[in-house]
Design a protein that fits this description.
alpha/beta; six-stranded parallel β-sheet; four-stranded parallel β-sheet
Length: 284
């Protein structure tokens, strides 16, 4: 773990995820803000985080944030719903004042929650996410702070991340689990007219989710909302924006093998050739 870092530093925007799903967040951010430099860190060797305890996710996430700070990032985005749900608040309130009071860590749940008010007419929405994200109640808590009249229903989808990670999401076998979880959610609350895809892997399942969700239901993917929220944040905090370097570069780091990351990243980023390095995070 790093010691206190109080000297202002200029550097890339850091994006962290336990695996590859955060690449969908990075992709949306780069499309909106291509001029900035970015470092993406995937803790692929210890993924998935979705079924791990709060303590483990918090510890792993803090290690990753510390690594990105060491690499000069003044601002880190937790492009992972599980990390945002289980670790963000503790890092912001407990760790940042001690180790890096002049740096910031943001998550993906708040920007999505802020958008939901104008996207539902029935005021009934669904959240589809990992077991950890759903059990944390982070989405209902954030949404009810802003829109107390909205009814929020969660649906854990434990098979969806493995289907994406193992490239099974386009096969016929994936249809069973997509239909199963969509039907379970709508059985809990038939009045739902908007569904938040509360995991950054889920955009790759968009076509199949759309196939089994009724036409009147709006699907909400996080990438665009997180990207716009980040741009607005930097517009409001010009001192932080000045510290984010702008060279249009992207560096990718993984705790797994470089070859595996390059192969899997192509699922999320297409034909882009990525520059990847392997890093180690302190074990707890």
């Amino acid at each position: 773990m790093i010691n206190a870092m109080t000297v202002s530093a200029n550097g890339p925007i850091g994006i962290f995820d336990s695996g590859y799903g955060g690449l969908t967040i990075l992709k949306s951010i780069r499309q909106l803000m291509p001029e900035y430099d970015y470092i993406y860190l995937g803790d692929n060797a210890r993924a998935p985080y979705g079924t791990r305890s709060f303590e483990i996710v918090y510890g792993f996430t803090l290690q990753a944030v510390s690594k990105l700070f060491e690499l000069g990032c003044p601002l880190v985005i937790l492009g992972c719903n599980t990390a945002s749900a289980k670790a963000l608040r503790s890092i912001q309130q407990i760790n940042l004042p001690q180790i890096a009071p002049d740096r910031r860590v943001l998550g993906v749940i708040r920007p999505t929650a802020e958008s939901i008010g104008v996207l539902t007419k029935t005021r009934h929405i669904g959240i589809m996410g990992t077991i950890g994200t759903i059990q944390s109640d982070s989405y209902p808590i954030e949404i009810h702070k802003l829109f107390p009249d909205i009814t929020v229903t969660g649906q854990p989808c434990p098979m969806w991340v493995p289907m994406v990670e193992y490239r099974e999401f386009e096969n016929e076998g994936a249809d069973f689990f997509v239909r199963k979880y969509v039907e379970e959610l709508l059985t809990k609350d038939p009045a739902i007219d908007a569904i938040i895809l509360g995991c950054t892997h889920y955009p790759l399942l968009w076509k199949k989710i759309r196939k089994y969700a009724p036409k009147g239901i709006r699907l909400i993917s996080q990438g665009d909302y997180v990207a716009r929220s980040l741009r607005n944040y930097l517009n409001r905090h010009v001192e932080m924006d000045a510290r984010c370097t702008k060279g249009g570069s992207s560096l990718f780091l993984t705790t797994e093998s470089i070859e595996k990351f390059e192969e899997s990243a192509s699922v999320f980023l297409g034909k882009e050739r990525v520059k990847v390095s392997r890093v180690s995070l302190e074990q707890i």
